[in-house]
Batch of 4 targets.
Target 1
Amino acid sequence: MHRTDAELRMLVVEDEPATLELVSKTLAGEKVQLFTVSDAESALERLPELRPRIVLSDLLLPGINGLELLERVLESDAGIDFILMSRESSTEPAIDAIRKGACDYLLKPLDPDRLRNCVRHLVDEAMTRQKTLRLDEDLIDVFQFQGMIGRSPLMLEVFAKIRRIAPHFESVLVTGETGTGKDLVARALHNLSPQPSAPFAVCNCSALVETLLESELFGHVRGAFTGAVENKQGIFEYANGGTVFLDEIGELAMSAQAKLLRVLQNREVQRVGSPTRRTVNVRVIAATNRDLRKMVASGQFREDLFYRLSAIEISVPSLGKRKEDLPLLQRHFLKKYASRYEKAITGITRRAQTRLAAHSWPGNVRELENAISGSCIMATGNVIDLADLPEMFAAPVEAADYEERELVTLEVMEQRYLLKVLDVVGGNKARAAEILGIGRNTIYQMLSRIGESAEVFSSPGSPKTA
Ligand SMILES: Nc1ncnc2c1ncn2[C@@H]1O[C@H](COP(=O)(O)OP(=O)(O)O)[C@@H](O)[C@H]1O
Ligand SMILES: [Mg+2]
């Protein structure tokens, strides 16, 4: 059979010559390249070399059976579409196969039309997926601005604001939750400023004790305090002509706030312990994840400094408010970490994507980046699947939607989840025990305790019970 790039490799595992012949006849004109083996062991052996997209396997095979093969194949590559076929017309093996991740279950003798349609559908889907992958890569180029990825209206607005502000600003306040990309915004502002090759000096205001921080910002003279053995310039002098980035400005102590205000107003710095003032020409970018207005109201932040800084403000939206950016960001980080860890990871399975999309991302882009980098480390196959995601994604907890008065103890949460599982499996306690990974006795014990606490049933979203 000749091979073109548009063909997908398909492995057929079957020991009956008649079925094999029917399969190869039926699929002769389709966009698949067929490989055949007659038992599961050979299939597993050839998997790494063939890397098929589709596996079609009989249920009854000599040695390892089709269901076990299904599990082992998906373990090694969750992106493979697995079709099981069998003479067994009872529903149990079919349900079992689908539950274990098979994408279809075909009855023998095979109906050629059904087989052809099923394969066509999978081929179409795979092609579309490849196309969207390529599309995503192109989109990353289009929707990247100074190292930032974003296509949501909110982020496009941020990009536009940076472009407008960068050529002219004297000071800018960048606000947003932690992990939203404030550092990147600050760097972009500097890179697009008229002096991008001048220094960009960063000071994290929360990292240093008060006296050291002042000396870091403004410098000191020898003997100004214990340990000041030499004259030292601060970052305002160092960054002369360029940009000073004051990160976590909300942590700045009151005395340093007063000095900073003087620098901003007069464009002069005074080293700690020195009477002389030096003129500096710097742009200042301040960033914070705190609500400075509230801090002003409660007397923790100088009002005059706040107004000086916040005349121009860029507020970076939290990731939860721009979930449209998730797919591109995922792709971006996947590429970054797959290549960093030298893994041939090409994508994320649909169910893993669904799980990621359902998350509320309180840690914003940084949390997403960590999740993807962790998944790339864990991934054994060439796609990231549910099992590769960090532990916290294992069981979806909807706590983010609750208000504080609705929050419950872990025990109650456990009980509610038990009821939900029982609901789903139609009250079958053996099945529920299997899913939950606990003994049936434990279930009975939990159920008897539920009877004692009315709280389990009292919240919206709690399941009906039998
Ligand atoms: N829009 C974005 N595109 C690509 N990477 C981003 C984006 N926003 C944030 N990041 C990445 O997420 C991490 C956290 O961003 P950072 O700027 O340090 O957040 P913040 O300073 O607001 O806490 C960094 O590794 C950064 O590169
Ligand atoms: Mg930061």
Target 2
Amino acid sequence: MKEGVFTIIKGKKVLIKCRSLIKLLAILAVGGLIIFAAIMFIYKPIYSVTLNGEFIGYCTDKTEMQNKINTYMDEGSGENVAFVEINDLPEYKICFLKKGITTDDEGIFNKVISQGKNYYTYYALVEDDKEKLYVKTLEEAEETLEQLKEKKSANASDITIEEKYDTELAKLTSTNDAVSKLYEEKKTDSNRIMLASTNRGVTTRVSTSTKISSKKVNLGIKLIEPVKGIITGRYADISSVRSSAHTGLDIAAPAGTKISAAASGTVVFAGTKGSFGKMVVISHGNGVQTYYAHCSSLLVSKGDTVKQGQAIARVGKTGNATGNHLHLEIRVNGQSYNPQKYLY
Ligand SMILES: [Zn+2]
């Protein structure tokens, strides 16, 4: 009997021991869960960043880092920077908590942008095909021309504006300095008078180069849209495929789509011209011309008289074009204007 009682007591003791063990485990489990939840709540993933396969540091926020880099590429930093070209972008790899990791977002950003190439925009004032001086903005360039005209400078009508687009920034001049440096006393030069009188007629000169302007001048005629399509390139756009700003409007349309004359006039050019490919140029009088470039075929010849809406060519991608589109230009006395100020 004695032994039996002892066994029961022993059994109870084991049972009590078991219960406290379960209690302990439960407390540990709950505690662990709370700690785990706390870690998950505070813990942010860390990224190991590599550039060209080389480890450059740990960063805390991949999205924020990439956004910062993208903004920098779009806007650049510093005066006159149009955009920044960065060839190699970083790669991110998520990594789990490691002991003693120090993140360096600033350092990573600086390393990535240090291999960037700045592209600057500024404006040249050009006289007789020579770049005389440079100003910071198109507004300053136009203001300079305006003031030269007001002061009746002899060269006021000979100076044109050209947008520059380069990896190096030229020495820039203030508007006041530009006006005083470019100013020319009135000349009674007979050559100049001759030139002025020949310019008065219909402009028949077809040139591949033109300048851009933010102005809208009165054309004296109403234009219609030469093709229906999607705008894929805007006037004055800067692109890495071109060496300077875009002097026309690109309208994408299927190959072979008929291109109509924007207004009645005389065909002054129908043929192939360098990067324009197959092109038609129509003169509408008073120095107003419209250019239709990258055509697949031409439906008119030089000297033809065309009516507004008449088919003059078909859409293509001849010359410097990557896809089928019409490159449309509006020029007045050789100066290009934004087609979207008149059409589309
Ligand atoms: Zn174009």
Target 3
Amino acid sequence: MIIGLLGFGTIGAGVYEIIKERGAAEVRYVLDIREIGIPELTHNMEDILADSEVDTVVEVMGGLHPAYEFVTAAMKAGKSVVTANKYLVATFYDELIALAKEMGVAFRCTAAVGGGIGWLTALEKAKRAERITALEGIMNGTTNYILSNMKEKGLSFETALSEAQALGYAEADPSADIDGLDIMHKVMLSANVAYDVSVKKEELFVAGIRTITDEDVKAFGEKGLTCKILGSAFENDGAVAAFVQPTLLPADSMTASVPANFNLISYEAEHSGKMSFFGQGAGRYPTAANAVQDCLDLAAGKKEFYTNESKQIALSNDKVSYRYYIRTTAKSAKALCKEPFGPGYLTEKMSVAEMQAAMVKIKAEDEKVFIAALAE
Ligand SMILES: NC(=O)c1ccc[n+]([C@@H]2O[C@H](COP(=O)([O-])OP(=O)(O)OC[C@H]3O[C@@H](n4cnc5c(N)ncnc54)[C@H](OP(=O)(O)O)[C@@H]3O)[C@@H](O)[C@H]2O)c1
């Protein structure tokens, strides 16, 4: 296997190091903007495209552009693609899997969901044998780190976020993490693979943790609950629900106990029940190791994406219901607030779709609103 590596940042340098250490393949080119002092460096994608011996391109630059142009050009040149870029795959999902099929090249993105956890590969194997009825879990280490520290140390959201930034877990602009967008991409990819569908990411209900306060967290703790932000998808009779929301879990449950920046993702299979996967959801070596594993799967002859089918469907978020914690000053939420609960209220049971519609109005009145689903 001869590789063109796009990007030599956190993950790219890890991929380079692991491949060299194992002698598993040849990295012939490393494309990066900077002068990084390695013999394989090029600043020109054409070098990789023009070299017919390069059979695989590993994209770890991040972002949409030029990653999209480079990945599609690589496929059109007959090269297989491995990427860790969930933003890219979730945005151009249909187009990228169709192009890979048309060109007869492989396309894998295991490191895009769960970093070091081989989640998409596990899901692919599971759904070959059984129907997957649900998938759910902690899919973002940064927000788990923030929520864990708020609970354990009684920190405010702002202090917990600053600590996460100082440790390099959260970026200078943390929006993608704290507003749930990173998890949205991961849920979308997971649902597509598990249920052989193609859902529009814009249809997912996404509620983040930007507005959670230490008073909220303290009140949840007094009631024996822990708040985690979960990505979830369910399938029943062809109807698929998918969403991202803070969720209140019994404090002694397995998911509530996930520490620091770890991930825990589970699927529920029709016959074998719940299977859970725990580990480093990000970081240089765990993520790079998964990208390298994708390369080795390709070298061993794997050609398919994780699913051969992708039915276009509309989400059915009206089929899943919760009682919600809601803290807001919005008048439009008054009818929903049934039972006092800490600094906010509990609603009666309502569907995710109903909460999604209500939040559009509530947010227009009160941008500091915070909601969390109460797990059954
Ligand atoms: N970090 C993680 O833990 C993690 C986990 C799972 C998935 N991922 C995914 O892995 C991908 C890479 O993440 P990362 O953390 O390694 O990012 P990163 O540290 O920012 O590395 C990206 C590298 O690509 C280079 N680059 C950007 N645009 C380029 C261009 N047009 N041509 C050539 N080189 C270019 C960057 O150069 P400059 O530094 O000069 O911009 C940088 O060296 C992202 O899609 C991310 O979502 C990351």
Target 4
Amino acid sequence: MTDGLGKLKLFTAGDIIEAHLLQAFLRSQGVDAVIKNESLQTGLGELPFVESWPEVWLIQARDWDKAHQLLAGFISGETIGEWSCPVCGERNPDTFELCWVCAKVPTDEAYEFRA
Ligand SMILES: [Zn+2]
């Protein structure tokens, strides 16, 4: 009925940053994912095609239902808050345990100070 590999495309992102955010978010929730068409984004201008949007694919079929629930939350922007990476300054959703850019763990100082 299916080869089992053609059904795991979770999401087509609008740009590579969105794809990386989603991938990092999924990984932070225990769902492993890969990004396809990532390298094509570097050659803008050379590519006449618009079919090269980055795509987020699941690795494990068993993650499908969970990933879709996470995706729904990701798209609707249901993030609780965000923290700024102490190393590169990138802003990360609270749900990220690591900086999605440099993979550093946030320190306490990265969070908003609560008096
Ligand atoms: Zn960082």
